[in-house]
Amino acid sequence: MQLRYSFRLYPNGPQRSALARAFGCVRVVYNDALRARETARAAGLPFVTSAELSKQVTAAKQTEERAWLSEVSAVVLQQSLRDLDAAYRNFFDSLKGKRPRMGVPRFKSRKDSRHTVRFTANARWKITAGGDLSLPKIGDVRVKWSRALPSVPSTVTVVKDAAGRYFASFVVETGQGETLPAAVPVVGIDLGLTHFAILSDGTKIGSPRFLRRAEKKLKRAQRDLSRKAKGSSNRAKARIRVARAYARTADARREFHHQLSTKIIRENQAVAVEDLAVKGLARTRLAKSVHDAGWSSFLTMLEYKAARYGRTFTRIGRFEPTSQVCSQCGVKDGPKPLNVREWTCAACGTVLDRDINAAINVAKAAGLAVTACGARVRPGLVPAQREETGTHRDGQPTVVGIPAL
Fold first, then answer.
1. Which of 133, 265, 271, 324 keeps 20 to 30 A from 295, CA to CA?
2. 326-348 average pLDDT score
3. pTM
């Protein structure tokens, strides 16, 4: 299984300048290659191959207009061409129905919120004895490690986000995750907005609403940004403050998702959830609250953690009538308005909580036995996800992907 681990980088002034040059060169090579292919398509010429593009990059270094491409490692320029190939491949696969619909590759801008350069083994990058990351034509960059890498990484990607933070992202090969003790309970999860998650055992987990809580600070930062003159250095500083405010909100939400998903995977042998239509809900008047909850990322974390640690993860169809069926007697009494949070079953007389009843029905719809004492379920196999872990300067791991269970 391939996993991706991310650690915070702290480059000094000259190293930041060298990284800025690398980001710029990668962007120019990508845009030149994309322009060459678009020009050939418009002229009715054959598709420009990667080998031809690579020759064009080599020839461009000999010209006066592109001589500065030699100031960065040749590997990152070749990897930029690989990224363009991947973008075209994903676009063509989407046309064939092999993946969700994607647009055609687009030109990159220096004003993009995220910049990356990737170094493979051919670049001869290394981790020094002192724990620094040695990158060709950049230098030894200080890294804040939160854990040891499980194996020798094959590539490293240096990322600069909108908040001006630098990260080193490593791809490593890992074996099976640690074996967790067998857990008896089986849990169904109903996701919501008032309560983020309601479990079939009756537990209700409140919604932190990170975006709502940070709205005042975000509004103030956005107002300060709007009052700065365009193109001024003060506007650039204000933009960084806005990006950092949003980054703190996103980090807090991600940390909450990881802690909760880890707890659920630890305590339950099988997990059942409902396949929500998040894109549809995000187009309603509840859009801000839906995005603030981050259901999709939470379910993705549950899925790959279950696959890695030998648990069972099941999604049921979004059209299952989980809120219309009595979890005790199975009688379906029809849809109910959202303001009805509790009712009494006309058939068996049981007083039902809408959310808990739905969570139990989610587990039953997945074919998992829900009893008073729980039931053992044999774990199944689910395709693993590639995510990232991260660190802060203080050494405390901030989970950006797979945390240590």
1. 324
2. 80
3. 0.80
